[in-house]
Amino acid sequence: AKTSGVGVAVVDQWRTTGHSEYSGSGRHFVTANWEQNDTTGFEYQGGQMTESSGVFTFPSTGKYLIRFCPGMTNSQGSTNRALTYFMPEIHGARNGSDFNAVARSYASNDDAGGEYYVSATVEFFWDVTNTSNDKVKFGFYVANGMQTKGDSSVQQTAATFVKVGDT
Hints:
Helix content is 0%, strand content 48%. It has strands spanning 10-16, 20-22, 26-29, 34-36, 50-52, 55-57, 62-69, 71-73, 75-76, 79-80, 86-93, 100-104, 117-119, 122-128, 135-142, 146-148, 158-165. Strands 3, 5, 6, 11, 12 and 15 form a six-stranded antiparallel sheet that branches. A five-stranded antiparallel sheet has the order 4-1-17-7-14, with no helix packed on it. Strands 2-16-8-13 form a four-stranded antiparallel sheet, with no helix packed on it. The protein is globular and about 50 Å long.
């Protein structure tokens, strides 16, 4: 194992600013409403992540812990849907464009009678060796329509990036 003595070199956190609805089953990505955390008490350290249409670019090479935690509800299209399951995912690309799932988590509920809230955290260590080509984005695979929760002052659907060492 290579150690660098860097400690925690980068800390950054992002969130969605509003709710987003996703209809139908299948894979969906969170592409809109991202902002860097600007709540009093948060302060990024080191370089900042950048984001475009839900694709995140790293400020420097190194080993990053990436965490995605979506807040979700089974209410979509004014209907409480039978969610049955949702799988939050982190997708990574080494060439800037060909994304594949690198981490997945699971949550479920099978009752459509009321509105239910679910959340599951997924995380992955990504060895960023090229800041032009190594990218990540966040999404989920669902069995039915649903909604992600978002807010401009409270973390509800959020991503955290922590650089813990050199590549």
